[in-house]
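Aggregate trends can hide what the representation actually does to any particular protein. For completeness, the protein is quoted in full, as a sequence line and a line of structure tokens.
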Amino acid sequence: MEKRVLVVDDEQSIVTLLQYNLEQAGYKVSTAMDGETGRDLALEQQFDFIVLDIMLPRLDGIEVCKQLRQQKILTPILMLTAKDDEFDKILGLELGADDYMTKPFSPREVVARVKAILRRSEIQNNFQPVKNEEEGLIKIKDLSIYPEQFEAFVNGEQLELTPKEFELLAHLGKHKGKVLTRDQLLSAVWNYDFAGDTRIVDVHISHLREKIEPNTKKPVYIKTIRGLGYKLEEPKGE
């Protein structure tokens, strides 16, 4: 089935370029030139992927991303920024974006990143339920991860996770007790080279902690191993 991509950018040349390259890659593309229109399209229609500029008229991309996530729209989002602004990038990721790129960029790289993220998230949409719901279960005290069902629970309450957040949690769970470096997590979860930009891992780890840790200032599940990376482990002294 043809995948649907929404491109939201106020520069017509960029919209035209991305639309052409994405359609050449086999995607059906819708476009919007301002944040409000893009948000409304994303709420009214079902898309498989959203390419979202940060600097937009009427409603900026950060606010669009925030509102979509608040409305439980978990469609993967790739954010674009014309500024090499650390704050914009990190804030976008903290609000639930899956990835970011800084302008100018190669349209081929955008297509490659869309493919990489969709390749993972489409598994989530097409999974076949397992006969035994306990099959593949990763149980760590009050945290339960079901990789086959793409579901996770804490104290019996289902977590609302973006595709990338779930992939990161599941990968850590499958390697419970093992220290994984940021580069290893980048390779395993994002599946392409971030040129050493491991901050995206740190942001997603922070987001996961907000959802699974009783106290984010003293995490008991996801531990930081200074100078190395992270590991998911059984809480001690519980």
Observations:
- The longest helix spans residues 107-126.
